[in-house]
Amino acid sequence: MPWLPEAAASDEHSLPAGETARTIELGERTVAYILRRASRRTIGLTIDHRGLRVGAPRRASLRDVETMLLRHGRWIGEKLDEWSTRRAHETLSISDGLQLPVLGGPLRIRLAIGANRCVWNLQAGEPTLTLCLRAPTDAPRVLEKALREKARELFAERLAHYAPLLGVTPPALSLSSARTRWGSCSLRSGIHLNWRLIHFPPEVTDYVVTHELAHLREMNHSPRFWAVVAGLYPDYRAARLELKRLAANCPQW
What we know:
By secondary structure, the chain is of the alpha/beta class. It folds into two domains: 12-86, no CATH class; 99-247, Zincin-like (2-Layer Sandwich). It has six helices and eleven strands. The strands form three sheets. It has a four-stranded mixed β-sheet, covered by helices on one side. A four-stranded mixed β-sheet has the order 5-6-8-7, with helices on one face. A three-stranded mixed β-sheet has the order 9-11-10, covered by helices on one side. Helix 4 (202-214) packs across helix 5. Residues 41-245 form the YgjP-like metallopeptidase domain. This is YgjP-like metallopeptidase domain-containing protein. Pfam families: YgjP-like.
């Protein structure tokens, strides 16, 4: 089941009169939106670089607005994903000395000449990852490959840790590269985890892992589902908030 918290809505104190910042759960993603009430007859949705904006008649109840959002949840998710991929100004240029967050700590990227392989040095005072490149243009692909391999190792280890606590066999693991989904679970195909979780602290990864494992018991977000999550990872609420905070600034290249 796909999910991902969206970036937080604009600070409510900076919004024009008549607008409020709100969030809603659409499937497995928490979506921030701006609600603007005005003299209009229908509820309208707009999605652009600013995110989701909802125009509603002054007489419309919040329930009316949320019913409309839930009805169009799939479309909203698709459009938010499309806009996410357009944020070219947020992409990183991979250069010698670039610092990236990995497992919540800083990792220094070094560039060298080589056969498109990578060399990890995690024992030094400053952990480094050296990309040995045939050409500078190969840097994004070599870097992603290195981080994907590290992510797969971590995810497999955490699934092996938590699955027995749920009384299940560790499910098949696949890596996802979705821009706005951190994980999904299917009884048929197993668990998909976004490799970019490698940028976040271990407690955030543990939350996503336990969230998806819990879907093997409850394919929904009912109170029973959250009880399963809490049984696996009692501090999941704090980790979930941390994921929401970090998601908006996840490195992209």
